[in-house]
Design a protein that fits this description.
The chain is of the alpha/beta class and about 140 residues long. It has one domain: Rossmann fold, CATH 3.40.50.1010. It has seven helices and five strands. Helix 1 crosses helix 2.
């Protein structure tokens, strides 16, 4: 099974968000253990780096964390056609539309996110981390 992992799921883990980190960590562990193929877009890496960099001031530590993530998930390139196709999606947020378009192109089964409302009009179904685990990994 191939899933696109939204930024919020990854940030849950690295910022140890109490209510969400355990479930989100399980998603990443499934990818790390090759039970699923977890993917993020190349542009998501810059978002993650920026968000974590506001809290982790030591650059070497930040680089190590992000590089470790990249051994856990696969990177999906953002193509020029993804950008132009994202404008055709009936989604409010362009960044989410671009993520959804990349998910569509790579034939992801789901987008795992805590913001499923942002992906209502996505060409790839979104699912909450808890629901994903309860549905497929009981």
């Amino acid at each position: 099974m191939k899933i696109m992992v939204d930024t919020n799921v990854i940030i849950d883990v690295y910022q140890n968000r109490v209510d969400f980190a355990p479930t989100s960590a399980k998603i990443l562990m499934l990818s790390e253990n090759s039970k699923i193929i977890g993917m993020i877009t190349a542009s998501t890496v810059t978002d993650i780096y920026y968000i974590l960099g506001r809290h982790i001031k030591e650059r070497r530590r930040l680089n190590t964390l992000v590089q470790k993530l990249l051994t856990t998930v696969r990177l999906v390139d953002v193509l020029a056609t993804d950008v132009t196709e994202a404008f055709n999606l009936a989604m409010e947020d362009f960044e989410d539309a671009l993520f959804a378009q990349c998910a569509k192109r790579v034939k992801a089964d789901y987008i795992v996110t805590r913001n499923t409302k942002d992906f209502v009009d996505s060409p790839v179904q979104s699912i909450e981390p808890d629901d994903f685990l309860n549905t497929f990994f009981k």
